[in-house]
């Protein structure tokens, strides 16, 4: 299998019926980027910028952030990279910011984290904005905001970025050739107002790790709840289909960047729901490319549509039988 996946490295993943599926990778550290070439990903669909903050004893200075982002873009050699602004706080507490469970939050996943924290600690977001603009000078920059729960949060974060862009432009700094803004969809509230958010966005990335935890009210890290935290439950698949459908006819590129997309049956489910962009862990890229090459989307979509309308007792079992019957 290892050899077979290596052979797929330079092969673009088309389905049997001829649709190009975009398979990107999730990353967070400078060293992760080596995998981009190794596994033949289409780019980095999620760069978790908070990793640098988490491994650092003090707040990383703007210059250090800039060097990391520039190195990542250099290594990506023109392939797209989506930088997610810091998702610290909650379970990703950093000691130099007062966000830890013991200090503030009784319920860290739902606490003062990610964009909530960044909009209040505006200096943090400003310095990240400047570091990103500087690192991407002359190239395309993709910025994604985490934990957007209401459309105004996206507006506020984008305004911070655009103000910094205007400031730097005014000082004659070289700017990115294009800047694209997107949001993560990982909080259920935003699903209810998605029609209001979509016109503001260039891209949308569904974070199924957190979205699932919030939809089930089941902590993603609690092994006692692992069986309830089921990506193939109709309670997850139906909203995922609604979310995808809401973007049809808009200019928004939609994808999934949760770990779900890196698992065989879950990836099949996402493709059957209409998703064509998956950002996954590097080790899963070979196997998912191979999977993509074996499927017929019309057949898969029809099967998924049937299962969602009249769910069998276990969609996992149904999907698994569907795949086995086709030697997938
Ligand atoms: C997610 O929530 O699905 C996601 C991709 O982000 P993270 O795992 O970093 O919370
Ligand atoms: Mg998340």
* Average residue pLDDT: 94
How many helices? The count is: 15
Question: How many β-strand runs?
Answer: 8
Radius of gyration: 20 Å
Structural class: alpha/beta
Q: Helix and strand string, N-terminal first? A: HEHEHHEHHEHEHHEHHEHEHHH
Strand content: 5-15%
User: What is the strand arrangement across the widest sheet?
Assistant: 7-6-5-4-3-2-1-8
Roughly how many Å apart are the termini?
14 Å
Largest β-sheet summary: 8 strands, parallel
Uncertain regions: pLDDT < 50 for 5+ in a row? none
Q: What proportion of the residues is helical, as a percent range?
A: 40-55%
Shape summary: globular
Bound molecules: phosphoenolpyruvate, magnesium ion
Keywords: Cytoplasm, Kinase, Magnesium, Metal-binding, Phosphotransferase system, Pyruvate, Sugar transport, Transferase, Transport
Family: Belongs to the PEP-utilizing enzyme family.
Main location: cytoplasm
Subcellular location: Cytoplasm
Description:
The chain has 328 residues and is an alpha/beta fold. The chain contains 15 helices and eight strands. It has helices at residues 2-7, 34-39, 50-54, 62-76, 114-120, 122-135, 151-170, 188-191, 194-197, 208-216, 234-247, 264-273, 282-292, 297-309, 315-325; strands at 22-27, 44-48, 81-84, 140-145, 178-185, 203-206, 253-256, 277-280. It has an eight-stranded parallel beta sheet with strand order 7-6-5-4-3-2-1-8. α7 links the parallel β4 (140-145) and β5. α4 packs parallel to α6 (122-135) and α12 (264-273) packs across α14 (297-309). The longest helix is centred in the middle third of the chain and has 20 residues, at 151-170. It is globular and about 60 Å long. The model has no long low-confidence stretch (mean pLDDT 94). It binds phosphoenolpyruvate (PEP) and magnesium ion. Phosphoenolpyruvate is lined by residues 46, 48, 87, 186, 207-210, 257-258.
